[in-house]
Amino acid sequence: MLDNLLRAAVGAATMPLDLAADVVTLGGALTDRDEPYTATKARSVMANVADATKRARP
Q1: Phi/psi of residue 33, nearest 5 degrees
Q2: pLDDT tens digits for the chain (58 residues)?
Q3: Which superkingdom, per the lineage (predicted)?
């Protein structure tokens, strides 16, 4: 549980870097990405939070 919470916290803390990457690459269009960097990071953070809460339930 703590592992997933730590991953979520680190992911949230590094979100500004992904936002900057989206600005520079026009949302990933210049790097042929299907999804912006920020959306990918947000999905990862939410998955880690969901896993942490799933494990915390009795």
Answers
A1: -90, 145
A2: 889 999 999 999 999 999 999 999 999 899 999 999 999 999 999 999 999 988 766 6
A3: Bacteria
